[in-house]
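Running log. JK asked me to keep both predictions on one page so they can be read side by side. First protein, sequence followed by its tokens:
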Amino acid sequence: MNKETISPPRTWAEINLSALQHNLDFARQHSGQHVMAVLKAGGYGHGIQQIAQALDAEHLAYFGVASVIEARKLKESGIITPIYLLGPTFPAERQEIIEQRWVASVSTIEEAQHFNSLNAGHPPLEVHITLDTGMGRGGFLAGSLSSAIEKIKQLPNLTLVGIGSHLPSADEDREFTLQQFSQFESSVLGCDLKYLHLSNSAGLLDYESSVTNLVRPGLMLYGISPLPKYQDKLQPVMTLKSRVSLVRTLPAGHGISYGRDTILKRDTRVATIGAGYGDGYPRALSGKGAEVVIRGMRCPLLGRVTMDQIMVDVSALPECESGDEVELFGSTILVSEISHRAGLIPWEVLTGITPRVTRIYQ
């Protein structure tokens, strides 16, 4: 019997694990602190289990996830790095958290008390306190932190091991971010806990703290800097690729794509590429001067991005042919360039790469 023939992927994401390692090394060297690798949202679209397995031998303090669903995926991957739940949890999730010994962050005394009551008869559960220094989505306010620490330390079935806060605008508002650092440092002064943490990627890159000993890199782990001046220190981990499916010469006056927003002004060699917004290539790039790379040359996008295909002008690339590889974003065209043109943010583009895109780990 002949083996079944499997065609190559139409659109795929090459995931460079050496670049991931490089970015982690830089985060450690630049911060000089322990690291919680943030793997939420499917490892920022890169594959949560595969990224975790690649980093599991790195003696990280934690893997940070957003939900119990993500924590389960990490457990299924067989990792040994402790799993940290970055936000508040639902009451119905807490028994599972206790059974799995995941590390919870608590934002209210009631949440801590519920964990304490559920954990009766088990070894103490490690928890962190979330301090709200300006993010506004959870945590104790600075004025109630001392009381919260005292009350949580009195709960016999919990062990308080850390305090963390979050920076909402470290890449946009330096003055406010410096105020956050000052507030956090004064609030936790004298706290004898294993971990004190505040910095995300932008905070890690551009700010210093006299008290924190743990950082939480997310975007920068995947090779994209939220602050452009540090981009040359990082290596993009994901390269999104597709292939040319068709090349034709269309006459002046011919329309391109839905809505006929683009009408060719001259005879144009047009390449059709097998990727679209159904793969996560943003539809908002339509008409925004976006480009792709074919045979080392940037080729401009023509017309609207459709669900499964895009068209580009390859008039300056006469050797372009069906089957050619196309870089949609990666090391040549950064995802930050794509997101800027689309009016999005890099986090949104990376996490929007859909399941039908094959991930290939290198």
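And the second, directly underneath as requested:
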Amino acid sequence: MVLPSGSRLPSLLQTLSLIADPIAFFDQQSQRYGDPFTTRVLGINSPPVVFFSHPDAIQAIFTTLSSKLELGKVTDVFRPLTGNESLIMQDGSRHQQQRQMLMPALHGEGLYRWGQVICDLTTEAIDRWSVGSVLKIQSEMLDISLEVILRVVFGLKPGSRYQQLQRLLHRLLEDINSPTYSVQFFLPPLQQDLGAWSPWGQFVRIRQQIDALLYAEIADRRSQGIHDRSDILSVLMSATDAEGQPLSDVELRDQLMTLLLLGHETTASGLTWIFYWLQREPQIADRLLQELDTLGEQADPMTVANQPYLNAVCKEALRIYPIALISQPRWTKEAIELMGYRFEPGTVLIPSIYLAHRRADTYPNPDRFEPERFLGKAKSPYEYLPFGGGSRSCIGMALAMYEMKLVLATVLRQVTLTRSSEMLPVVKPTRRGITFVPPKEFRMRVGDRRGAKVLVS
């Protein structure tokens, strides 16, 4: 088997390089070896791992070759958090069946009905900001995102259970995204419950408390009925499979935790990047504000979300620094041919979202933040794939984009945010758990209020 060119360094060195600075790793490998390139980054006996960025190759992996590929156990790292019944743990017909049950809750009218709640939650956060204060934007966006999940996904109303879950989920998410804590999920031998004082013991006990609250909410919802409720949990509780069977309590719990994992950090990080770029490129911020100011104070959430430049700004932020750098790896089940190469069974093929978004033939001047790229002809799902693609694309992408646009528009319509210092340094993404975000040093100062421009439905 003749493989694409790639580094001849030992597997351990390649793996450490990828973990330490994945963006630098991808940049160096692609510049040196082109597309595709081969690595060995899965251990001492690593099979060949081949990264692709060409749209034709990505399309083949997602479509025509998909039946000859399998996902393996890449998502096992999330199992302690999401559980065995999570959508991301399934494959084949089981995955397809679950996805069909979940899709209605995350798309269409049921989703868009929550636009006003997203705007209101954002306004409540803005009201807590005092003029002249300096904000850690990432922290503020994480708080808003968690509130949206509790209200829109979990369907909770303010009260004791809401407050308990908010506190516990905040602690859990902060823990699993810290480097010293998250390493346990990648190294199963460290997953030892040695008591409440031990790192894994702390995780287990927080998870137990969260589960108790979620199961109590599910039980209350079953006993009280879910009529006229449109939150995602209630929609899932009314869903049935092809045999007419509803989701069990365990399945409901696992899907809720999956949506939390996939939707909290990613949405908040995307928003943080947008605020960073708007400070770097004030002419883009001015154009976006001009578009939003034409809407008037009575614009409904759907009208706001459909503004073309707002959409372009959000898409460009997810292009230039996608929150996930790769799409889900695939293992070849049988020999295949792709991009002029023949890959034997066991080879790992990985579409690189980061490199696909940096192709100069698709995106001229790819390092520049230019929302105008998304005002013309639409990009194909193999050129632009911030949420992955194929049958494994992120099921919550419609909610994520809707939330990003409404939170951004609500902030910009109500308050002016300025640089917290005279100079805005050039920043590079830093790892936060499984995502790549602006460094914690990125802050903004709250300026003048722009008026009570509350969105109403």
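Observation for JK regarding the second prediction: The radius of gyration is 22 Å.
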